[in-house]
Specification:
Rossmann fold, 39% helix, single chain, alpha/beta, five-stranded parallel sheet
Length: 116
């Protein structure tokens, strides 16, 4: 069974790029354009990994992460932050990795492979 990655990203170009990148490398993907949508999908789908943008239309990424961490079925899901904000690696200190846009696709894939 394919490992499932939830992509929470409100920029359609970045979301499409990540979907293609992960699916071309054998992963199943689901995507959400807001934190609220991402959280309800995560509860339903139980993804193996989540990529999280910090600047979302409805909620700040770290707040979403706190909600995720408080959910006993989701709290151990690895999260990779992908953001255009500088200093993003400090926003979610427990994220397994933080990438700034634009990011290196090979580096991102190697982190994904390491955690799922």
């Amino acid at each position: 069974m394919k490992k499932k990655i939830l992509i929470i990203e409100d920029d359609p170009a970045v979301a499409d790029y990540l979907i293609t990148l992960f699916e071309d490398n054998g992963y199943a993907t689901i995507s959400a354009t807001s934190a609220q949508e991402g959280f309800s999908i995560a509860q339903k789908e139980h993804p193996d990994l989540i990529t999280l943008d910090l600047e979302l239309p409805d909620e700040w990424g770290p707040r979403f992460y706190r909600k995720l961490s408080a959910d006993k079925t989701l709290k151990n899901t690895p999260v990779i932050v992908i953001s255009g904000l500088s200093g993003n690696k400090y926003a979610v200190s427990k994220a397994v990795a933080s990438f700034s846009k634009p990011f290196d696709r090979e580096e991102l894939l190697s982190v994904v492979q390491k955690y799922i």
